[in-house]
């Protein structure tokens, strides 16, 4: 990549992000990634980096602490997954990267992406979450796991039992950090950070910037790269708009696996579960509008990820029109009425 390419890209990104890192990389090929990692990236279906990936991957690979504000579908998961896979030393079989998420489903979804993108790299990964017997986690750790994705409670448990060695951890990722705090995991996060090597790189992704999160990151991060999305760019433009909690954990796991592997092609779900799905979805249908505007982007964010074209259809009544206009204003977008030739649209 030439200097001119970097400068012109940085100029464009200044209109989108507020950040203290100006260098962007426009293609995966220009990121100096391992050959087998590139093979996995393209094999998974990633064709070109998202705006966030162009900014975030290079400093992340360089070992810089980083705080990035990002929403579902912006490329946040792939930003740290690619960075983690690039930084792993295949000769060291102990845990080198720890990724914490607020829910079991999200942790398992992240683990699936790591396994898929890293399938040609001979790297081991494991989802360490509640809802399963802890002995299955311990057995995996005894065999050696290089990347651990999990929920703060279960990860804290295995660390306190001395069943997960963390003296080789070089990277800690907090995914949806605001949600982690909302779930009451602040104490567990602080405890884990205190036990990690002082040289551990800390990477934080969050959709919002609560004061508690700012306080924690200020205490544990060293001169972090900050990538903050400007409020007027919380947009839904990657998508063309035309407008249960009673399952056991085992049943949820089966459903997610079937959907991610393609054996099941239609998934009906609720808001909390929807944001945990990290898959190449090309059609989202909202049976009704969400209760909050933030949930709208979490529902359909992944459908337009990585530059892919996708469609989101929302069913509304006359009583919903006020909320619909509010969503349009909030995201600075226009939601079209569903045309008669819906087959051509999809």
Automatic annotation (TrEMBL):
Pfam families: DEAD, Helicase_C. Residues 26-54 form the DEAD-box RNA helicase Q domain. It comes from the Eukaryota. It is an enzyme of class 3 (hydrolase). Gene3D superfamilies: P-loop containing nucleotide triphosphate hydrolases. One of its GO terms (cellular component) is cytosol. This is RNA helicase. The lineage of its organism: Eukaryota, Metazoa, Spiralia, Gnathifera, Rotifera.
């Amino acid at each position: 990549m030439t200097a001119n390419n970097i400068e012109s890209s940085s100029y464009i990104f200044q209109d989108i992000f507020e950040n203290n890192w100006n260098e962007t990389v426009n293609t995966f090929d220009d990121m100096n990634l391992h050959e087998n990692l590139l093979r996995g990236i393209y094999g998974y279906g990633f064709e070109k980096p998202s705006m966030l990936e162009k900014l975030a991957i290079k400093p992340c690979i360089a070992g810089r602490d980083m705080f990035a504000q990002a929403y579902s579908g912006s490329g946040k998961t792939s930003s740290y997954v690619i960075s983690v896979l690039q930084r792993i030393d295949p000769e060291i079989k102990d845990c080198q990267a720890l990724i914490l998420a607020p829910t079991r489903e999200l942790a398992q979804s992240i683990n699936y992406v790591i396994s898929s993108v890293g399938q040609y790299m001979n790297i081991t990964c494991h989802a360490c979450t509640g809802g399963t017997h802890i002995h299955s986690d311990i057995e995996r750790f005894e065999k050696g796991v290089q990347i651990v994705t999990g929920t703060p409670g279960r990860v804290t448990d295995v660390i306190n039992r001395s069943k997960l060695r963390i003296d080789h951890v070089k990277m800690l990722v907090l995914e949806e950090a605001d949600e982690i705090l909302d779930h009451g995991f602040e104490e567990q996060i602080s405890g884990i950070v205190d036990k990690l090597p002082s040289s551990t790189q800390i990477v934080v992704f969050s959709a919002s910037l609560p004061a508690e999160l700012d306080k924690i990151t200020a205490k544990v991060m060293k001169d972090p790269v900050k990538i903050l999305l400007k409020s007027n760019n919380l947009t839904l433009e990657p998508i063309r708009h035309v407008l249960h909690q009673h399952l056991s954990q085992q049943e949820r796991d089966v459903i997610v696996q079937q959907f991610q592997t393609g054996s099941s092609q239609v998934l009906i779900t609720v808001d909390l579960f929807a944001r945990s799905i990290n898959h190449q979805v090309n059609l989202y249908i909202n049976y009704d509008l969400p209760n909050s505007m933030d949930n709208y982007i979490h529902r359909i964010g992944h459908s337009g990820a990585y530059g892919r074209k996708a469609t989101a259809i929302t069913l509304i009544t006359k009583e919903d029109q006020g909320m619909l206009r509010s969503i349009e204003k909030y995201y600075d977008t226009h939601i079209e009425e569903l045309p008669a030739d819906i087959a051509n649209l999809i």
